[in-house]
Design brief:
With 429 residues, the chain is mostly beta strands. 9% of the residues lie in helices and 35% in strands. The protein has a domain of 48 residues.
Length: 429
């Protein structure tokens, strides 16, 4: 790994403008613009990346080392190919051809990846934030908030992230950040239930609270960690997409996968989470027929389609197919999104006043009241799942099989867990 000796100090410029107005004696409304711009953010890139197609002797010009070694044979079409590929229409890439095409091979033939740390990443965030607040009156208070925002960067995870798909083109990584949530709504309310004296304070001091959260989907990063269609050997290739990226939300099920092209056994189905890569949950025959035709029509290469298969949206209108050998796919970074987040928490408090200075509060708190399952983001800065982010064969592409709390390392009470209840006692004196 190399480090830029001229590393600069990262910094973020924050700016905001807000207007607040009081409505009557108990209400207020606020409208705000909030934004920031991050400069000199840390990133890694492979400065010794082989050119496109190097594994298949498709880079031009070929290096002298390649010509003298594995790329010295010409096939029937007049193309230079690894010797093992002469008699076949397609073949696996040759790691030696990749190594001999690296920029620093002539000086350092024993070095492969040279992951270079520098300050070439940057970020932007812009948002409109609205809030309506009711101060406590007649036993009721609440705050409602809405945020419309867009965060962009060319690397959300800094030193913990992937290398770029193409280390020679960092601008190609610029897109929605891992944290990007386009719409977020929150609502919190507290209501002190009117009471009556007597009966040991059991008819007074009751309070109900509720928190509702709704957020639209966050992006998740996808990369092929096994096929090396680009021939660069970086194992960070993205595939081709045809149609609408929104047709491929991640969730508790994988994205339908089609395989077996060129054979009589071509089929489509959901991957079995306990036997990754097997289509044990088949789809209707009419859908399969249409999906297979659509995959074939949109495939950049019959050879890579046959070896890697393709993915089809459940509505049958969009397709994700492997790129041709020696090319990058057209998918941008973070164009796929998860299923969003929605949660409703409720709590009931009972307040007891023993003396003027001593009191007690009994709490019953319910998290995820409706017990609606939420699937974690498959991969990114807000998730440690990293199981369903690769489209390579044998994967469960688009599925996480965890709730967000487990994915974030908080398997007790936290965002996205199953319904959880707890009792608490608070003493004040």
């Amino acid at each position: 790994m190399g480090v830029d000796q001229n590393l600069k100090l990262p910094y973020v410029v924050n700016y905001n403008l807000s207007v607040q107005h009081q409505l009557g004696s108990n209400f207020s409304v606020e409208v705000a613009y909030v934004g920031n711009h991050g400069y000199n953010l840390l990133n890694f890139a492979d400065i010794n990346q082989a050119p496109l197609g190097a594994a298949y002797c498709l880079n031009s010009p070929l290096t002298s080392a390649q010509l003298a070694d594995v790329c010295g044979t010409t096939n029937g079409a007049g193309k230079r190919v690894p010797a093992a590929c002469v008699a076949t229409a397609s073949c696996a890439g040759n790691p030696q051809a990749v190594q001999e095409a690296r920029p620093y091979f002539s000086k350092f033939p024993y070095l492969g990846f040279i992951n270079f740390a520098s300050n070439r990443s940057y970020s932007n965030y812009n948002s409109m934030q609205l809030s309506l607040t009711k101060r406590m009156s007649q036993g009721l208070s609440f705050t409602a908030g809405y945020t419309y925002a867009h965060g962009l960067d060319n690397g959300s995870l800094n030193r913990f992230g992937l290398n770029p798909e193409d280390s020679t083109n960092l601008a190609g990584e610029y897109g929605s950040s891992d944290f990007d949530i386009r719409h977020r709504v929150t609502f919190t309310v507290t209501y002190n239930i009117p009471g009556r004296k007597g009966f040991g304070q059991m008819l007074e001091g009751w309070q109900i609270n509720s928190i509702v959260n709704y957020a639209t989907a966050q992006p998740w990063q996808t990369f092929d960690n096994s096929d090396n269609f680009s021939g660069t050997g970086e194992k960070a290739d993205r595939w081709n997409i045809f149609g609408n990226a929104a047709d491929f939300p991640s969730g508790k099920n994988s994205i339908p996968y089609c395989s077996g092209f060129g054979t009589a056994g071509a089929t489509c189905g959901f991957a079995d989470p306990y036997n990754a890569g097997s289509n044990t949950d088949p789809l209707p025959a009419a859908f399969v027929s249409s999906a297979l035709s659509g995959c074939s029509a949109h495939a950049a290469s019959p050879a890579t389609l046959a070896s890697a298969g393709c993915y089809v949206a459940t509505n049958g209108n969009s397709f994700i197919t492997p790129p041709a050998l020696g090319s990058f796919g057209n998918m941008g970074r973070n164009i796929l999104r998860d299923s969003g987040y929605h949660n409703w928490d409720v709590s009931i408090f009972k307040n007891f006043r023993v003396t003027e200075r001593f009191g007690a509060q009994l709490r019953w708190e319910v998290f995820n009241l409706l017990n609606i399952p939420i699937a974690a983001n498959p991969s990114g800065a807000s998730s440690f799942v990293n199981t369903g982010n690769s489209p390579s064969p044998g994967s469960v592409f688009g599925a996480s099989f965890l709730t967000p709390d487990f994915a974030a390392g908080n398997p007790l009470i936290g965002s996205g867990s199953q319904r959880v209840m707890q009792l608490g006692l608070k003493l004040t004196f």
